[in-house]
Amino acid sequence: MADAKKKVTVATCSLAGCFGCHMSLLDIDERLIALLELVEFDRSPINDIKEISPSVDVGLIEGGVCNAENVHVLRQFRASCRVLVAVGECAATGGVPAMRNHYTLKECLQEAYVRGIGVAGAEIPSDPELPLLLDKVQPLHHVVKVDYTLPGCPPSADVFWMFLTDLIAGRDPVLPPSLIRYD
Amino acid sequence: MPDSKKTFQLDDREVPFREGQTIFDAAMAAGIFIPHLCHNPDFEPHSSCRLCTVIVNGRPFASCTQPAVAGQMVQSNTPELRDMRRMLTQMLFVEGNHNCPGCIKSGHCRLQATAYELGIPDNHYQQFFPLREVDASHPGIILDRDRCILCGLCVRISRSVDKKNVFAMTGRGIDTTIVVDSPSGLLVDSTVSVDDQAVLNCPVGALMLKRMAFDVPFGDRTYDQALYSEDSVARFQATEANRHG
To answer: For residue B231, how many other CB atoms are within 10 A of its CB?
Structure first.
């Protein structure tokens, strides 16, 4: 049934991530055309829609949770998405941003904005528009229930393709060992 | 020769064994992989990680230390044991700081390769994010406790093979950590050297030689090329062939 109304809706976003996972999704190359026959993107940097719809089938979240805005967006995604997917190592484990968990937040800010090499007019940013940083960077499943995880830094294009086509076809997506990579 | 007639049953196969051989060794010699982390078949077994646990006549035993006995019924590749191995591996991941994307051991790491093969997509449990010390004092060796799984291989090998006793474990339970035998507690003041087997046989990225990190590019590394099970069984059988002809 290629009925346009029955397309699966997919929302994506990057929290404390580097957009590498999104690049890897685009890396499915010409299969994007086939994917777009099956899915319709909701909020995503791909179409620049800023707010997620109240009811979305699949939410793909890249990156861990490092500030108050990340928590807000993650909770919105959880409330809206039938299936929530942690995409990549940062979403699954905190990843590279979580390496700051070894230090206090104060130490991190001072290193970046006060003691850093070449810093002029040293001042820790405090504009009220800036989201407050969390004490520690957390993986998604510390904050909300996560239904699936796509491992990898980033997950390969084949991981995205297999996961999404399985899910859309109604199969429970289980990655074979050959597609499970953490680096 | 009469020894070769002795067998036990492992899952659905009859596995021959020599008198005194462990279930693990007999299985590996027969080409049947049993997941393991604290054990390296080149050294004495220790049975601490429990990943190699099998059910022998209805009771769990660590196969790396459990002697094979004729006629016993052993289960290894069951859904329950696979689940248990997954849980143990996930717990090892969350209680350390195992950051594969930022780790130079990635691709050579047995913890990672084990998790790949057990089909683990995530850590499931809450991350501990523990604060652990990195010792980069030695000019040729780094000790990164963030990646240590406390398998005790370095302790055992340094004691019985290198004859140096450089490493030991201290603390209890979740506070257990690796310590170095030197006045300052640092590697640089110890008797460790870059050709110590204890250093070269760390299954994870806790003990590594410096300036060797990118000798083999990512993608061409040990477990990029072969599954841990295949590589491990092949190496075991090659060593056995050398020892016993």
So the answer is: 16
Identify the CA nearest to B198 among candidates B169, B167, B171.
B167
- Structural domain including A47 reads 4-100+134-179
Half-sphere exposure of A60 (CA within 13 A, CB side): 27
* H or E element that contains B149: none
Backbone angles phi and psi of A26, in degrees to 5: -65, -20
Number of compact structural domains in chain A = 1
Q: What's the DSSP call for residue B133?
A: -
Amino acid identity at A37: E
A27 vs A176: CA distance, rounded Å: 20
> In the structure encoding, which two tokens stand for residue A106, read together?
């104060």
Note the pLDDT tens digit of each residue in A42-99. 999 999 999 999 999 999 999 999 999 999 999 999 999 999 999 999 999 999 999 9
Q: Which domain holds residue B36?
A: 2-77
The answer to whether the Cβ–Cβ distance between A92 and B126 falls below 8 Å is: no
Q: Do both B194 and B124 map to the same domain?
A: yes
What is the number of H-type helices and E-type strands within chain A?
Answer: 6, 7
In a domain? residue B239: no
> In angstroms, how far is CA B32 from the centroid of its own chain?
17
- Chain B contact for A183, CB < 8 A? yes
Asked if A92's CB is within 8 angstroms of B122's CB, the reply is: yes
DSSP state of A152: S
ipTM value of the model?
0.92
